[in-house]
Design goal:
alpha/beta, 9-stranded antiparallel sheet, 46 strands, about 30% helix
Amino acid sequence: MSTKPTQTNAATSRKAEEAYLQQTLAVVEDNLSHYGREVARMQEDIDEMLAHYHDNDVEVLTILNNTVTLHDHMKRALQRNEKAQNKPYFGRIIFHDESLDKTESLYIGKGGIAKDSTHQIVIDWRAPVAGVYYENGLGKCSYQAPGEAKIAIDLQLKRTYEIESGKLLDYFDSEVIANDDLLTKYLAKNKQAVLSEIVATIQKEQNEIIRKSPYHNIIVQGVAGSGKTTVAMHRISYILYNYEDRFRPDDFYIVGSNRILLDYITGVLPDLDVYGVRQMTMEELFVRLLYEDWDKEKYTIRSVNRTVPSAASSSGSADSGADESIKGSAVWFQALEDYCRRLEERTISCKSVYLNPKQFVEGLLDGKFGVFDTTGGQTNPCDLVCLLEGEAVERYLRQNPTVSIQSKINMLNDRLRNKIKEEFLGKGIKYTDPEKKAILKAYRRHYGANVWKKSIYELYHDFLVKQNADGATIAIPDTAFDVYDLAALAYLYKRVKETEVISEAHHIVIDEAQDFGMMAYHVLHACIRGCTYTVMGDVSQNIHFGYGLNDWEALRELLLPAPADTFGLLKKSYRNTVEISDFATRILRHGRFFVYPVEPVLRHGSPVQTRQLPDRPALIRSVADTCRGWREKGWDTIAVICRSLSDAAKTAGELSAWLEGIESDPEKAVFGNGIMVLPVDYTKGLEFDAVLLLNPTREDYPVEDGHAKLLYVAATRALHELCILHTGNLTGLITDPVPEHPLPADKAPAANGPLSSAAPVRTAHTTSRKSAGTRTGTADTTRAPHALSAEQRKSGRSLQRHAAHTPDGQNPALPKPENNAPVMQDTFPEFGDMPATEILRPAGHGRIDLAVRWSAKQPDGLYLHSRYGVLRLSPVGSAIVRVTFAKSGQIEDRFHPAIAVRRTERTWMYKESATTIDLMTDELLVQTDKTSGAIRFMTRDKKLLFAERNKECRQLEGAAGGRMKIWLYPDWPKNETVYAMGAGETKGMNIRKTARYISHKDQPVFNAHNSMAPGQKPQAVTAPGTLPFLLSEKGYGIVLAADSPVICCDLPTYGTYLCAEQEVQMDYYFIAGKRPATILNAYAYLCGKL
């Protein structure tokens, strides 16, 4: 039902709120009575029709189907109202609709509640206007319904309620939905209670993904506990509610990595008013795409090597997972494509087809009437009639690469038959009926039979034999197939045998997407067309390290080709306590791979417990005691996580003597309340109130990348409590110090933030999504078969080149930039231009450790060294300090060409305390926090002027041409006004609460090669112009000595930062002054304009 929300009394007192709650509950009671009667009446009608129904009574059948449909809808309405008895709504917004010039007050609940067909007293959370509650702060904003224009409103109140058992406990007014106190209170509850509050606590970055258009693809990188599965389920619910004309439940497929996760999703979806959505594992999806060629009596599904091989099993044997690593790669799909292409070339002839009428002449021969060949074996070219040109056949094959070989055969046969019939109707030779029949019979199967005779299983066997002959070492399956075997078979069916295109899903949601190699995604993309995707995953949780996804670049290349396709980032973890999150992050930092940052909600809990037991019996008793203790605390969902399936089965059997209700077969386990004993890879996508890691030894979890991810997955399943019990030598991933091996800049993924466009949007300034410094390789190319084909060997193509990757990660089709040469954009942005969305998103990064390790005073300034880089503070004058920061161990000795003053003040001092390092001039105190590395600029009497953000105050990441993209994070108070100064006739602007380019077109940059001989001064491309300059009303200015365009962003969605895109190092000047004129004069002096 779609109704216009009624305008309600905007009273906001507690008395008014309690009155409205009682009014709402009274409506719910009336609805329950009404819907209950209707459901019972309809059930009686259905029973009566079934009792008298006859197969030939079409009218009764139609009425029966309609009644059943209405009965189902009414039952769901009844269920919604039953759930609303406890908590009919969770939020409220009051806003002024500017177009209608009226004030609206709307209550928001998990489902809509209507008093009658025209009065909706609670709106559904999925309604477009409800998005305001999740996304906006108070003040001017807007919302948009699908396919309609934005509606401007002035949001005046946003309120969140605590209601239990129909009683109003409390309410909160906040500009930030689900403020930390309320969110922490919800998260502290047990698993089942948290599930009931999910809709009320959806966060802004989650809501943005949920409400993205279903007509475009989206990939979401979400850290452990960021709500990926929850967001995916709510997204399905939102789409079905708002796009019901285009999407029905059976248009969706949910693809998960294991059956336990899918069973969990099945149990949650009805609570979101979603019914009838099909859910399957990736293996089951590929089996579905085999249609009639899958015989479940003859063939079976087997698992790939579920987890990474141990250090001892890296020989490439079948048990080590080497086969799966090869078969899961993009190059394996390319090899299969090549095989099908060559099969098509052998099967379908591209030669011209001719008819010789003298071969089909009706007459009498040897006393018999018939149609005979009268050529005597001699062919005169002048007698031939061209039916089909070879070039036309080639063109058809080339223009239809996705059509199956069998469909091409059938189409060419049909086309040839039509050409023959056209010949019969021509004005030339007249054919008798027997001659026509003979000609049609002779040519009817010219290109092949109308059904593919050879089994696709035989084709796959032939493909594998050829790969092994060319140097690969692949085990050839008989009747049991893993996910990549099934993917290959599904592609062979689609590419070779398919004759009828069956419409499958219109939208596919893939959870735990990092577990599947690019082979699976290429096959899906080829087999299911006209479909969009929601892909959720975390590459830090890729426990299939040999063939899963270790970064998103290859998948983005495949699924996000359009500007409207998006890549999202969920970096806040709502699952774990701070103690569990820190413990898990330390495990992950033992790996040598990029780690997306995790921002845990600040919810503290019990410390992580680690205990060693003397033997196995004592270990099992301690497990039982720990689980009983957790039950007494009220934790409903408990997991005992083991390394392998066999270990889980053994442990479950042993625990059954001590605890009731233990399922001894993990394959049959169903997620729910109680204690589950599972192997680690079965826990993907799940979460539990308490988790016990059983015996994580060095043998089972060696210190290497794959096992770091595996143990990280296990540890991050816990909401509240985590305990490690062991008898053997505990893994070094827990006991060893975290190694110091920072990821090189050129190995970090492309910088993207919470939600970014998949392709550059042309604005005043754009950047390529793949720069030379971006990691483009994936796990698919790190471990490849020895060879794909003799043809490829002859052409000299290695597997890595076959995957279009060069050793330095560059696209071979692009020219390689000169060393350190800045890649200049096609247009330099104007001062005041709005940057494109994908540029605004902050970059993901590994841990940034800016803690000061040691300091040294040098003639050119004070040097402060951290693990992340080196910081130099250089007093230029008593009120001017130059700040330079380089990520490498050495700062380049260089001045920007627009800076005229190249001196260092001699009269300055510094002192070091336990917490800070202070540099002092006559006018300034520059204080650096030793723990965070953040700088605070103060007057000598300690009045704060400007401060960098205390947490990760600076960031440098690799950019094109060996340069760096830099971010400086100011800590500006809300009430501080900061202006970006214009140049010439250009006026300045207030840059708070907006995002703008603050650089100027006449901004000088260094010479293109930036390579200088000792003592040589850098040359500017343009004459010295205007550097980006910020002026604060608090009595300071900042000059950014940047070569490239500079952005100032101060938006809650993206954060507050200054960013320059291609720099050698960070370089800015801080100027203090009591009056603006003093600061402006100092700026002019610094740039040689005074």
